[in-house]
Design brief:
alpha/beta
Length: 177
């Protein structure tokens, strides 16, 4: 079994080029073995919509690290396995934009899997939205909270793998550079 770095980001506004929070859950040997959460100072404005959705505003991130400081801490973890997310192209896109905005070079591509795409191939006829999948599998969820969303995504990934999903069939490559 591969080691997966399951992550979820929240964003401060519709541009989706900065993070206001990140949650990470590490999946290896059939279990969640490590979790990480941090608010992130996006150094930009918060829209009303995003604040209402996530509960995060400027006061929430006061004193939180900006992305470069956070990256120093999470890069070793993010480099330690295959990235995974629910609707991964969104979260990977935000990560890519943050890296670019701060001139941080990491790697040109990353291996990843997307639990939405996995679900569409494995479970026909159901909604693959995160809250719907959590209801289907009876997984606790405090939706749009990065720590809860990343943990829930990790649990969904574990269910798919337990039910026989072939890992190699779901690994993709995302271009960062």
């Amino acid at each position: 079994m591969y080691r997966y770095i399951v992550f979820d980001v929240e964003t401060p506004n519709r541009y989706n080029n900065r993070m206001s929070a990140i949650g990470i859950a590490v999946v290896e040997n059939g279990a969640v073995t490590e979790e990480f959460f941090s608010y992130v100072d996006p150094e930009t404005f918060f829209s009303r919509f995003n604040t209402e959705l996530t509960g995060i505003d400027k006061s929430t991130v006061a004193g939180a690290p900006n992305f470069p400081k956070l990256w120093e801490r999470i890069e070793p973890l993010m480099s330690s396995g295959i990235l995974a997310a629910h609707n991964a192209v969104f979260d990977l896109g935000v990560l890519k934009k943050c890296l670019q905005a701060y001139g941080i070079e990491w790697r040109p591509t990353v291996k990843y899997c997307c639990t939405v795409q996995m679900g569409r191939r494995l479970l026909k006829g159901v909604s693959h939205k995160l809250d719907s999948m959590c209801e289907y599998y009876k997984i606790p969820l405090d939706h749009h909270k990065a720590d809860s969303d990343s943990r829930a995504c990790a649990e969904i990934l574990l269910r798919y793998l337990k039910d026989g999903a072939e890992e190699k069939d779901h690994i993709r490559t995302f271009k960062l550079g």
